[in-house]
Fold this protein.
Amino acid sequence: MKSDEASIQFITEKCQSSYRWLILLLGCLMMVGPYYCVDIAAALKSQIDDYFGNSNDYEVNFSLLYTLYAAPNVILPFFGGYAIDRFGVRMCLLLFISLIALGQTIFSFGISIKSWPVMFVGRLIFGLGGECFGVANSALLTDWFKGRELAFAFGINLSISKLGSVINNILSPALAQKFGIEFAVWFGTIFCGFSIACVLLTFPTDKAMDIKIARLADRVDNYYFLW
């Protein structure tokens, strides 16, 4: 009986699966896109000013880009956390990263047509998914890591995520200088597509483990019932 219990415990714990390192890698990489895009406007601030003709209201409009992102996130993470508990991590990860990608796409389109209102809408939509995506990402890691490994997973996740900001600060101005500001901003949208791919790649492993756990839980119940 003891050997059976040990085998069951090993299989039914996600934190005991070697696939947790794959989930950690994908969890880190999926955060690079949002971190790259959230400050893309800051990395290109002077270029955007020149692109719009150095208008007198530029500073106000530029500040509003960040206000529209930050203001909804005063309360949205609370509802995002509830949605994750209610509908599951996988669905919410895809929903939030889709909002981020959609927002970045609209923002990039606004740059292309030189429209502040369109850019504002894009940043607002980006904000609807931005911080909630971080909550969902943390929930995913919490599901796969326990005990002393959990803090390590969070630390490594944050470190790699910040690479997105570093890459943005270095790459975006260089791209704008060589290919133009439109290309530099749309390149951020490509990063969002990369993050969507990372989210989708977690689905097979995470879903398969959930199914295995559910099946083995039934076996455990039947085992103790019959025993």
Notes: The chain has eleven helices and no strands. The longest helix spans residues 181-226. Confidence is low (pLDDT under 50) at residues 1-9. The CA atoms of residues 1 and 224 lie 10 Å apart.
